[in-house]
Design a protein that fits this description.
single chain; alpha+beta; 2 domains; 4-stranded mixed beta sheet; 3-stranded antiparallel beta sheet
Length: 306
């Protein structure tokens, strides 16, 4: 009996010690690193304990983890797919990675999975909201030749490679400027797009590209970069870079604002639109429109093509 009691006491002590050890682990240092399965059909999260304290060191540590073959050999390192990172820039909540040309040697599905793994891993850092990738200093393009702009975590919800690489055809109603620059004209556009991008973001990017149709004119500086486009409770939050504030075209401020707003509220998911610049909406656009405003559809300035 004494021997049995001794064994039980030892077991209790071991269990207590293990529990205490688990409680002492700093949970704020537990991160997820995403790897790609050997079939290259999905990404999966593996737990990772962060050692670094400073942001730049944390980014370096996570990138090293993404380049290291995981212990579970049925998975591959996303940064071990034959290309190299040439430069890393961290600025205003965004990481920009410049990679070598052989990045394009990957299959379409694998490339999307690599992006998903990188973005989902790096945006866990509290100070990082966005990731962009360039190839030899040039914008990354997808298999259809479309520029892949700044990415955030919300764009990669699914782990399935087929799901996040699906292309669909969609009909959009976009509003561009008339010749005088004081009114809007609606244009219907059929677009094949990667469903990895939200329709809201697709609309903003298409407006930035311009109409490409005779009689219609652009409303937004073509060099404008889209930081993010999200929708909550019927409000579409459009976050652009500072280039948006520079208007090279002869269009009114009203035309630019409602080109974006009217195009977005054509979607059933959007009722109002708010625009910000690098996450800041405290400014006034062209000394007329406060960006704290939630803009609603305005058909008063919509006209027809003569």
């Amino acid at each position: 009996m004494k021997r049995i009691m001794t064994i039980l006491l030892v077991l209790i002590c071991l269990v207590s010690f293990t529990a205490c050890g688990e409680e002492n682990v700093d949970q704020t240092k537990i991160y997820s690193v995403y790897y790609i399965n050997n079939a290259e059909t999905k990404v999966e999260m593996h737990e990772y304990y962060m050692e670094a304290e400073e942001l730049e060191d944390q980014v370096t540590e996570l990138l090293n983890a993404l380049a290291t073959t995981p212990a579970r050999l049925e998975y591959k390192a996303p940064l071990g797919m034959g290309f190299q990172i040439q430069n890393v820039e961290i600025k205003m909540g965004k990481i920009q990675l410049d990679v070598t040309e052989n990045y394009y040697d990957m299959s379409v599905t694998t490339e999307v999975l690599v992006r998903a793994a990188i973005v989902r891993t790096l945006t866990q850092l509290s100070q990082i909201n966005f990731v962009s990738i360039t190839v030899n200093g040039n914008p990354l393009v997808d298999s259809l030749g479309n520029i892949v702009s700044t990415m955030n975590r919300d764009q990669f919800v699914e782990n399935d490679g087929n799901a996040i690489n699906t292309y669909e055809e969609v009909k959009l109603k976009l509003y561009f400027a008339n010749e005088a620059g004081d009114g809007l004209i609606a244009a219907n556009r059929t677009k094949e797009y990667n469903t990895n991008i939200s329709l809201e973001k697709l609309i903003v990017e298409e407006l930035i590209k311009g109409p490409g149709v005779e009689g219609l004119y652009p409303t937004i500086n073509p060099s404008t970069k889209v930081a993010s486009v999200t929708v909550r409770d019927g409000v579409c939050y459009v976050n652009l870079d500072e280039t948006f504030l520079t208007q090279p075209y002869n269009v009114s401020a009203e035309v630019t604002i409602y080109s974006i707003t009217n195009s977005l509220v054509e979607l059933s998911s959007v009722n109002r639109v708010q625009i910000s610049i690098n996450g800041d909406n405290s400014m006034t656009y062209r000394e007329k429109y406060s960006l704290t405003t939630y803009f609603e559809r305005n058909l008063d300035i919509v006209t027809t093509l003569d």
